[in-house]
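User: For documentation purposes, I need each entry recorded in a consistent format: the amino acid sequence on its own, followed directly by the corresponding structure tokens. There are two entries in this batch. Please keep commentary to a minimum and don't merge the entries.

Assistant: Recorded as requested. Entry 1:
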Amino acid sequence: FTAKYQRELADAVSIPVFASSLLLVPLIARMLQSSKKVGIITADARYITDRHYAGVGIDKETVRLIGLEHAKEFSEVVFADKPNMDVSMVEQEVVDAARTLTSEDPEVGAILLECSLLPPFAHAVQQAVGLPVFDFTTMINMVHSTLIRTPFRGFL
């Protein structure tokens, strides 16, 4: 949840700072039709505040947020330090959250998996809801490609 410190962090150093995958939301929103929303799945929606949105330039009207704070297996592992995770159960909980987002708001046109624990489930989410799915690995790959350019060899 470091999005709220994005500006302060970027101002404190002389290198690019990418404090949160929430930085992707304005870009994703602009890729979609103006009537569409970015669905955000996070660990605990209660902790995403207006300051987080403001920190990375998110217009709250462009997003729909859902948290996994009530997902049994995810919560036990993340918040209660359960030592072993049932990966297939967590995958189902994340997929269920994506399905809830898209059924409650059919205008959701893309999904952002905000929590750093969620990228392993991106494929399952995409298969379930048929939408573009972004996460911090998407951001890392994009940023890396801008910082370490390779010679152009055509399109693959």
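Entry 2:
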Amino acid sequence: MEKLLLGIDIGTSACKVAVFNPEGKVLAQSTQPYPVYYPAPDHVEQNPVEWWKGVCDAIRETLTAGSIDPVQIAGIGVDGQSWSAIPVDRNGNVLHNTPIWMDTRSHEICRRVTEKVGFDRILKISGNTFQPTYSTPKMLWFKENKPEIYKNTYKFLQSNSYIVYRLTGIMTQELSQGYGIHAFNMRTGQWDDDFCEELGIDRAKLPEIFPCHQVVGEVTREAAQLTGLVPGIPVVAGGLDACCGTLGAGVVEVGQTQEQGGQAGGMSICLDYAAAHPKLILSFHVVPGFWLLQGGTVGGGSLKWFKQELGGFESLQESTEGVNAFKIMDDEASTIKPGAEGLIFLPYMNGERSPLWDKDAKGVFFGLSYNKTRAHMIRSVLEGCAYALHHNLKTAEEAGAYANELIAVGGAANSRLWTQIKADVTGKVIKVPTSDTATTLGAAILAGVGTGIYR
């Protein structure tokens, strides 16, 4: 009986589950959406329990759709969105919705901590600046604004480590997500106890760190009943979604770069040393011995927003004719010349992350006139997001990190036009090996390494 690998991806808008054979072929997959909550200005949250429900539903649907015997599953890898701060008690109960990567409620905390501890000291130890989107300020926000929740928190978990816990009953922290907590030393890959105290974080609330491919537990009987799996399947620690997508795209050598187009857009340049830049994001790669210098933008969801708010025509065609609305929008945009006849779009729809780090930045259409059409607007959205990518790549060069080729993943990579625009703007060759499954494939590869299926 052939051994199979299961990958789980906890994205911003949905979770994805896919089963692969050892050659990397997708045998079956499922996507299950869940909501994002905006309870107050600058507050953006999700409920991890809803992630888990989506995972359970997606696993069952995948096993059924592929007629897969769960006994064949030899290992499970989980990846997830960055910068969660999930407070759980000793029994693993979630005490509060987690602020997600788009949440900026802790901007005043960031100002105070940076002033007290020092910008240069934070960057030297963690390799990252102290921004409200990261996990550390969110933990401190709980400490200041929800002291009872902070007090009752046994551990703060990341998105993938929460799902690993629900599968195995074991609380972990893996290497690639460590960068979200500034007490994580970017060179040693360990918690810095003294810096924890300096930042005001209780060291005991941070889980033990594991290599991303290490088996940390097995599927419990309870998890098996909920998911349709069988007890005893090994589960590895997993990794950051951007890192797993980078591995799944084949980025394993210095200079190779993953370009991601989804709700969270960005790029990840593979390096063999920890090259920090104050305007970018530095993390460990899920591949041992490598780091990723990343740029993360919020503009990836701009086209989805346009479809929801202004794409009624395309949505109607999609529902009546079965043609993908994004394909229709692509065709419309392709009728407009490069530059959209002077119409410019700034894709800062929820502030902007790197390299601006400005929570107050706004999305802008500039250059509208009576001769502009919706096709011009669509084209300008595609171009604006491409320039956000270009901005991050040029900033990375200031740290000595040069992208020699881009490998595209995510939903945007399905658009030949959008990919060509990015290639034209950046001047880089862009390859598209497989766009929709690279992230779950990366998670599955980690499981394959951990269980000995791969070297």
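Summary note for entry 2:
The chain has 15 helices and 21 strands.
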